[in-house]
């Protein structure tokens, strides 16, 4: 049920994880929603590319996810982009929900998830989703990046629907993000090396700060709330890096 | 209450997707907004990883889950497929838990 309507892997995992951990349902929902925000930005780029009629938009909106965006944005023209978006949307939606249903049937037969070590599956899934995000930015600046910094591997791209892993989806969000952020690195090329280093590691810094914030407030607030506190790391880090960029010589916008 | 959370998440995730298709480009095209949208999921994911690995109610613990996550990280660095990464985490956690009781 959840899978049919939410259809955003990361948000689903987050919601189930928080609810399973005895978290406040509303805090859990807020955390899951924050993970879905990126879909709005895929939608923004897709709406220009696909040129959808207003009547079709509410229907198409449900399929706006990492994989469909990556496939559609990789196509050379609008006709192929529409075809790619539709084919990827249909196949992923069907595959993801069928396997989820089978999993739900199987889960009741398994009993306590902790006994099987399944409580570690959630963090592992998130880690597999997170690492390509941290790498995506450095792979988008090939000119400024030393060779030691490898681009995100297609194999590490997060398949939100592993069972339906179509070869067409293999470029993945990493490739999509590379295009999304193609502009900012170009503008930062003139900044001081220190600032550029910070910009490349901004993602890693945000992740680290979020971890520290979340763990630090676990003893003091109800379950589910630490995630919301930790998300504040994103605007905080953005403010800091802007401040640094402004102070450095020639770093103004 | 659990169903409230599920309904809120479903409606919200859909609304956000529709918003992206409908909102005028100028609003979301601002670099600051885009940057924030890239960073927020990173912060949320990192926090969720830490919490689901080290939090037990309102206390912090290091248990079999940490070993499972470490194994998953190794698998990830070795470029293992997605399902293998998750399987490694599950198996290692179960094994450590069985050994330590």
TrEMBL record, chain A:
Sequence ranges of Low complexity compositional bias: 162-175
Compartments, record wording: Cell membrane
Keyword Transmembrane helix on entry: yes
Annotated keywords: Cell membrane, Membrane, Transmembrane, Transmembrane helix, Transport
Record field: transmembrane: 80-102, 114-134, 204-221
Membrane association type: Multi-pass membrane protein
Chain spans, region Disordered: 140-187
Biased composition (Pro residues): 144-161
Pfam families reported in the protein's UniProt record: AzlC (PF03591)
Position of the signal peptide: none
Family indicated by similarity: Belongs to the AzlC family.
Protein name in UniProt: AzlC family ABC transporter permease
Automatic annotation (TrEMBL), chain B:
Pfam families (alphabetical): AzlD
Entry-linked InterPro entries: Brnchd-chn_aa_trnsp_AzlD
Keywords of this entry: Membrane, Transmembrane, Transmembrane helix
Keyword Membrane (UniProt): yes
TM annotation in the entry: 6-28, 35-55, 67-96
UniProt-recorded name of the protein: Branched-chain amino acid transporter AzlD
Lineage, uppermost ranks: Bacteria, Bacillati, Actinomycetota, Actinomycetes, Streptosporangiales
């Amino acid at each position: 049920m959840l899978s049919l309507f939410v259809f955003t892997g990361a948000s689903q995992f987050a919601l189930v994880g928080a609810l399973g951990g005895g978290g406040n349902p509303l805090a859990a929902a807020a955390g899951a929603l924050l993970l879905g925000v990126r879909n709005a930005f895929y939608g923004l780029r897709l709406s220009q590319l696909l040129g959808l009629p207003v009547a079709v938009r509410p229907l198409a909106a449900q399929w706006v996810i990492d994989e469909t965006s990556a496939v559609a944005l990789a196509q050379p023209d609008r006709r192929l982009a529409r075809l790619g978006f539709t084919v990827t949307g249909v196949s992923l939606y069907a595959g993801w929900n069928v396997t989820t249903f089978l999993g739900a049937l199987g889960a009741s037969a398994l009993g306590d998830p902790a006994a099987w070590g399944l409580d570690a599956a959630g963090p592992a899934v998130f880690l597999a989703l997170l690492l390509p995000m941290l790498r995506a930015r450095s792979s988008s600046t090939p000119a400024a990046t030393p060779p030691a910094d490898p681009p995100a591997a297609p194999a590490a791209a997060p398949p939100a629907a592993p069972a339906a892993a179509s070869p067409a989806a293999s470029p993945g969000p990493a490739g999509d993000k590379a295009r999304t952020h193609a502009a900012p690195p170009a503008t930062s090329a003139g900044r001081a090396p220190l600032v550029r280093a910070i910009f490349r590691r901004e993602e890693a810094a945000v992740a680290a700060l979020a971890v520290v914030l979340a763990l630090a407030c676990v003893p003091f607030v109800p379950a589910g709330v630490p995630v919301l506190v930790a998300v504040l790391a994103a605007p905080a880090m953005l403010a800091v890096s802007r401040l640094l960029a402004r102070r450095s010589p020639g770093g103004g916008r | 209450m659990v169903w409230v959370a599920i309904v809120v998440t479903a409606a919200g995730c859909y609304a956000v997707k529709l918003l992206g298709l409908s909102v005028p480009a100028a609003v979301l095209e601002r670099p600051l907004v885009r940057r924030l949208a890239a960073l927020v999921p990173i912060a949320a994911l990192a926090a969720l990883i830490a919490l689901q690995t080290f939090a037990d109610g309102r206390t912090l613990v290091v248990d079999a889950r940490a070993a499972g996550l470490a194994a998953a990280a190794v698998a990830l660095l070795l470029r293992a497929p997605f399902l293998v990464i998750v399987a490694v985490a599950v198996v290692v956690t179960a094994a450590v838990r069985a050994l330590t009781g």
